[in-house]
Amino acid sequence: MTHPATDFHGTLDPLSVLSAVERSLCEWYRSLADAMPGASYIEEADHARVTSPVAHPACNAVLGATLERSNVAERIRAVLSDFERRGSPALWWVGPTSKPVDQHAYLMAAGLELTETLYGMAADLQCMPDAPPTPAGWMVEVVKSPQQLADWMRPFADAFHMSGDVLRDLAPIGQSLLSVGSPIRLLVGSLDGKPASCAALMLGTGVTGLYYVGTRAALRRIGCASALVVAAMRAARDEGYRLCVLHSSPLSVDLYQRLGYMEYCRLRTLLWKPSSQRRR
Questions:
Q1: CATH number of 124-265: 3.30.470.20, 3.40.630.30, 3.30.450.20, 2.130.10.10?
Q2: Could you give the strand order of the β-sheet that contains 262-272, starting from the edge strand earlier in sequence?
Q3: What's CA 109's distance to the chain center, in Å?
Q4: What residues pair up with 140 in beta bridges, in sequence order?
Q5: Cα(14)–Cα(37) distance, integer angstroms
Q6: Is the pTM for the entire model greater than 0.90?
Q7: For 8-49, what is each residue's pLDDT tens digit?
């Protein structure tokens, strides 16, 4: 089931876009939890978190934390205790609405490691620029079969450094995403019949989000990622969406700007490791 972006009309209000960037992230993790056997998406008054049996930070996270400064250190310890019991590493996301505003400093004091500063970006799908030239032999498909899923996994593993063990743990999620009604669509771009690039499109409530855009190392800088992003944006527009959001690494900002995306905020991710995985 899709949810066209009926809440965006006319000029895109920056505050609404900020909200959409964070909302899409929460919907992404909620949908992943729905697709993962044994996973949970838990909402409390001051944060949301995802826990899963997959011991990888991509599948365990803390989102939208708005903590009282008077007991922020205590709350951080309490939230992390859930992951400690499970022995799972986790990503703690700090976005534009996170509180206190220096939350990342408290997290680092609690032992979390700052991993990335990401650019929260958005594009108006009614004002898409002309598509860049596509490489010869290029083709994009929506993943609908186990073979296409295996093809999608190849650039995903390469671009995001996923080990064989992690890919095996993620296999049930991929199978679940093939089911009718999933809000996540996987797109694979192939060059001369060989998988080259991957992307995931989150068809959320009022906004669509683009996740895990990646290209195999040997096929980068020839236009594969740009071509796949444009294909994903067109697919979202065809579903009735007005806005597409994403979280870009610094290295990819220029690419997305050329495709019509604008920066609206910055987000930080911090990695927490359970005691069993820390160096002694």
A1: 3.40.630.30
A2: 40-44, 47-51, 61-63, 90-94, 262-272, 113-124, 243-248, 208-215, 194-203, 184-191, 138-142
A3: 26
A4: 189
A5: 37
A6: yes
A7: 544 578 999 999 999 999 999 999 999 999 999 999 999 999
